[in-house]
Amino acid sequence: MSQKISLATAVTVGMNAMIGAGIFSIPVALAIKAGPAGIITIILVSLGVWFMAGTLARLAELFPKNGSFYTYAKSWGGQTMGVIASYAYLIGLMIGMGLLVRLASYSLQYYYPNCSVLTLGVIILAGVLFLNSCGVKFSTLGQHILLILTVFPLLATILLCLTKLNFNYLTPFAPFGWLQVLAASRIVIFSYFGFEAITSLFEVVQNPDQNVPKATAYSVLLVALIYILFIGSIILAVPLNLFTSNSVPLATILLQIFPTATWLIQLIRLSIIISIIGTLHAMIWSSSNLLVSLTNNLESKFAKQLCQSNWFNHRTAVLLIGLLILSTFLTLNNIDMFFNLTAIFIVLAYGLSIAALLKIKTERNFRSLLKTYLGLGTTLVIIFFATEGLITEIVKLF
Which residues contact 302 (CB under 8 A, 6 or more apart)? Predict the structure, then answer.
């Protein structure tokens, strides 16, 4: 970029990266797992994300030219650790996108009740892959429209729920126990994925030493405020007994509380569907670029020959990404499995990257070590509960 961006623009980029279609799957899952105390989960996860984002911002300062999970993990663990971190992140994205396809299918089934979730999901994924393989990208105007379609359901739901607040719904506050408040972190973290994008802006932000950490903190705090208002208003307006299944779309639950606001809720439902599809389009595009970049970084003859071949390009990478997403969509039909697996792989990439700071001599002062350990501690807590949740779901299958 010929001109450096301001602090305000960097904050906007960070917010855009975090506020995605995934947030619409959180309220129902959080209410089922933690009840009204889920609001505490949001606050705790927000603090944890703030620490992780701060450490990744420091890594971007130390590795400004080639900042990535591969570079960070390789600096302390060599080629193998760099590959593990980068591909863990990519696999986590594939699983997360499989969840988004399933969520879009659940919502779209309202309009096509005779079509199965699998059929609708395959149609959605095929359409998005076709656009990507043809090189269709959203214009700047299109990106703004998608952002509006993402923010509109959040604000509309908040305003709608504020008209029927009932503080009696806060009792009992933690019906499933306080341990579940921590365990639900594996669910809430899904709505914050993307915060790492701001660290890639280190070279293009004005006065980056000060503004990147500030932009990271401000964007996380603003997004946390929006999420707290969004989920908090839903918890205060919807009885806990209506949250029966993760597969029930949020709009369907809202219809039971606001039967006279059908037109607004239908608009919210449609906006959510378009937002999810738009998110899938953007994530597939960026993931295919990431796959090509990661393959180029591999120090093996096969990888180098593959990258030099005519058939391995962005288009074939899109198709490969699509096959991986399709496999997760068809294989996993349990939303909890999606949450757990996505958290394990992506947060593992965060942890392996943050660990690089422990090997850098200039980062061994008390303040730096405290931030690093808090960031690592957050990743360990989330991975622990995500692994525990995954084992629980696997046991249920048998």
Answer: none
Give the C-alpha distances (Å, rounded to integers) separating 394 from 37, 138, 337, 391, 397: 26, 39, 9, 5, 5
SS3 283: helix
pLDDT in tens, the chain (398 residues): 457 778 888 888 788 778 877 788 899 999 999 999 999 999 999 999 999 988 988 888 888 765 578 889 999 999 889 989 999 999 999 999 999 999 999 989 999 999 999 999 999 999 999 888 776 665 556 666 777 878 889 999 999 999 999 999 999 999 999 999 999 999 999 999 888 877 777 777 888 888 888 888 898 899 999 999 999 999 999 999 999 988 889 999 999 999 999 999 999 999 888 888 888 888 888 788 788 877 877 777 776 777 677 777 778 888 999 999 999 999 988 899 999 999 999 999 999 999 999 999 888 888 889 999 999 999 999 999 999 999 999 998 88
Q: Is 116 helix (H, G, I), strand (E, B) or coil?
A: coil
Here the tokens at position 320 are 């490969």
Rounded to two decimals, the pTM is: 0.90
d(CA 74, CA 88): 14
Which tokens belong to 155?
């604000």
Q: How far apart are CA 46 and CA 57, in angstroms?
A: 16
Q: Which residues contact residue 212 at a Cβ distance below 8 angstroms, ignoring those fewer than 6 apart?
A: 10, 57, 60, 61, 198, 199, 201, 202, 205
Comparing C-alpha atoms, which of 364, 338, 178, 183 is closest to residue 247? 338
Indicate the residue type of 78: G
* Residue-range domain boundaries for the chain: 7-397
Which of 180, 197, 210, 207 minimizes the C-alpha distance to 32?
A: 180
Report how far residue 66's alpha carbon sits from residue 190's, in angstroms, rounded to the nearest whole number.
Answer: 26
Contacts of 367 (CB under 8 A, 6+ apart): none
| CATH classification (class only), 7-397 | mainly alpha
Q: Which helix (H) or strand (E) holds 320?
A: helix 314-331
Phi first, then psi: what are they for 33, rounded to 5°? -85, -40
Cα separation, 215 vs 227, whole angstroms: 18
Compute how many other C-beta atoms are within 10 angstroms of the C-beta atom of residue 201: 24
Would the CA dihedral through 71, 77, 83, 85 be positive or negative? negative
